[in-house]
Amino acid sequence: MEQTLTSAARSLKNADAILIGASNGLSISEGYNIFADNEMFRRQFSDFRQKYGLRNVLDGLLTQEMNPEDHQKFLNRLTELWTGQYEATKAMKDLKEIVGDKPYFILTTNGDEHLEAAGFSPEKIWEIEGTFRLARDGQAPVNRQKELNRFLQEYGGKRLVIFELGIGSRNRIIKLPLMQLAFHEPEATYITLNLPDEIYIPGEIASKSIALAGDITATLDSLIKQMKSL
Question: What is the C-alpha to C-alpha distance for residues 162 and 201, in angstroms, rounded to an integer?
Answer without folding.
Answer: 13
